[in-house]
Amino acid sequence: MKTYINGIGCISTQKTFDTVFLEEAVHNHDENVLKIVAPVYKDYISPAASRRMAKGVKNGIVASAIAMKDAQVEKVDAIITGTGLGCIEDSEKFLTNILDNNEQFLTPTSFIQSTHNTVGAQIALLQQCKGYNFTYVNGAVSFESALLDAKMQIEEGEAQSVLIGGVDENGAYTTALFKLSGRIKPDNQQPYHLLDSTTSGAVYGEGASFFVLENKRKENTYAEVLDIAIVNTLNVNEIADEVKSFLKSNGLEISDIDALVLGFDGNVDFEFYYKNLAEKAFTETPVLYYKHLSGEYDTASAFALWMAAKVLQTQEIPEIIKVNSVTKSSYKTILLYNQLNGKNHSFTLISK
Amino acid sequence: MTKGVAITGMGIISAIGNSVEENYISLIENKVAITRVENITTIHADINKVGEIKKTNDDLISELELPADNNFSRTAMIGTFAAKQAVKNAGITSINEFRTGLISATSVGGMDMTEKHYYDYFTHPELVKYISCHDGGDVADKIAEELGLKGMVTTISTACSSAANSIMLGARLIKTGKLDRVIVGGTDALAKFTINGFKTLMILSDEYNKPFDNNRKGLNLGEAAAYLVLESDEIVEKQNKKVLARVLGYGNANDAFHQTASSENGDGAYLAMKKAFEVAGIKPSQIDYINVHGTATPNNDLSEGRAIKRIYENEDVPDFSSTKPFTGHTLAAAAAIEAVYSVLALQNNVVYPNLNFETQMEEFDLTPQTSLKNKNIEHVLSNSFGFGGNCSTLIFSKSE
User: Fold this and answer.
1) Domain B5-238, architecture per CATH
2) What's the topology of domain A227-351?
3) Helical packing angle, A142-155 and B162-175, nearest 10°
4) Taking a C-beta distance cutoff of 8 angstroms, is the pair B239, B6 a contact?
């Protein structure tokens, strides 16, 4: 049984809903933490319910609603999400209350929302979906774990349709801590560059990208998900061979790849993982990047899948995401590669 | 009937023991370990007892031989402790010899360090290393590194059913041939965060938890880690490996009722058990022992009991017990430690006692097994349910 992407919904730091494909996208050089472009929540969630919901939950609900509408489905058999830090604002809130009030006068709301599977659970609750419901939380491969699981569900015939998504939100205190630890580039070092960066850390972001996967090709199918591989630890000199053997196991070679999407995040300490691959193995391939638009976060690679699906649909690559000037007359097969700090590598292969 | 996926190794650390053997002895000798919390400072220490591992972080660091500048959370420490045991128990010497993965589970990740240092990071540069260990995935990354495992690593977090889901995913990865070998389980250290969280939900007992008792008042929290090694039949045959038991069935469903409460009829639990029987290809009457989720909260035990009654309709419900009076509720690790207990039940042909039970619930005629019982055990069913309506069932069976 094959797996097809039949619907997509993306809430991101760019205008990625009510648009064609990144025509209004902006590469922001002034901020080191990017905020989402918020949708009109009341079109999807009642204001009363919305007030109680965490940001990640709201964005997850809206992105999943857009994806389901796009796929023209009203229900799915399973819901699988990936998130790095879950609803981190609620974790911060509950922890701050514990520490500031000496464990007294606490209310459960933020504790409940801080649970990592809240987004997947809330979507299930809204849709009354009693099927399989998993949430993955393994840093940069959280979303790919959800994608791999969904593909297995469809291959095994356990589900015909699966809603998957990657969702993360920024929390004020956590971003301050990430600046301190060096994960986010320091304040006041504008302009923030990505491809030609000379500094450590990344420009951070947030978002929710959801997909409806089904076992049937439809008129509105964006792509077939061919394969996903997750590898925890790889040396930089092992990447090219890993990619070649991954492609080979799918009956493909480097020359079959019409576009390579890389997770460049402007962190000078680890960009050689991408650079090596782009400059040594994929010299004749259009290379694309996205974290200058989406920001870096654990599930930013879900934004990349959204982008790759759009390339296959529109058969166009917007200038703003091009790393090199190589073009192809048509785009059939796309490879995505992402990693974080030399760990949690993922390879995703999709095809028209 | 399918053959199921082979379990070839187990490792565990919990309040009732630092090894599989110690845990088993505690279970059959009624050695309960619900005590006053020692490793965490909390104003609730006198009221809410917990199942705590009586090793300090310094003890664990020295036993694991971690360098002085390590940034392990307690969750990662106990996880590494149990995972190393499991790998050793499975007789694995070359971890990357086959396509080997690690599927972990946690609910709080490195929260124990975050809550300890939260306001000190900006003034104490030596603590900054702990910022990155908050992440749930950091725990699995660290365990993988300690094991030297380079392949597929991921983490599941579906609250209190997390480890059941990691076992489920691992079994599917073996069945579909995506991996040859996979280490599955979960880990959660006690944290002020969870103690207070459960406190605000008013589901902590101020006594010893009494699952399935009419006068139950709530749960005792606990901390634990456990991992199991699952291997393909090809490896088992090739290396002539001893199979401890098999994962025969599994099912996950969502209650889709409420973020933290279970539905009155236990729809999610019922569906999870039903699916697990379908995968296992056995009938409910073939189960010899049910290790219930049995948290001893009024809501869980009612919902779970109703779901079990629905599965068994007009048949007798098999012997069942909750082992949470021994260990406390160890959240994301619970299903992994109870998987170890299920395998031990199969190996030793025992049903563990459901301690502290006195009065049958008025809603149904379900009485747990209250003393240790010896009898032949072929199949064990283990339930785990979590927030967000997440319901999971595993079925473990003797290996032929």
Assistant:
1) 3-Layer(aba) Sandwich (3.40)
2) Peroxisomal Thiolase; Chain A, domain 1 (3.40.47)
3) 60
4) no
Query: Using one digit for the tens of pLDDT, what is the confidence trace for A157-171?
Result: 999 999 999 999 999
Tell me whether residues A115 and B107 touch, CB distance under 8 A: yes
Judge whether B5-238 and B246-397 match in fold. Answer: yes
List CB contacts (< 8 A) between A138 and chain B. Answer: 136-137, 140-141, 153-155
Class of domain A3-214: alpha beta
Q: What are the φ/ψ torsions at residue A61 (nearest 5 degrees)?
A: -65, -45
ipTM for the predicted complex comes to 0.98
Contacts of B122 in chain A (CB under 8 A): 180
Of B2, B133, B160, which is closest to residue B72 (Cα–Cα)? B133
Distance CA A341, CA B355 (A): 48
pLDDT higher than 70, residue B1: no
Closest residue in chain B to residue A173, using alpha carbons only: B118
Q: What are the boundaries of each domain within chain B?
A: 5-238, 246-397
Share in percent of chain A as helix, strand, coil (round to 5)? 35, 20, 40
Q: Using CA atoms, how far apart are residues B134 and B115, in angstroms rounded to an integer?
A: 10
The topology under which CATH files domain B246-397 is Peroxisomal Thiolase; Chain A, domain 1 (3.40.47)
Of B55, B45, B52, the C-alpha closest to B222 is B52
| Residue ranges of domains in chain A | 3-214, 227-351
**Residue A240 predicted with pLDDT over 80:** yes
| A106/B196 touch (CB, cutoff 8 Å), yes or no | yes
Amino acid at A322: K
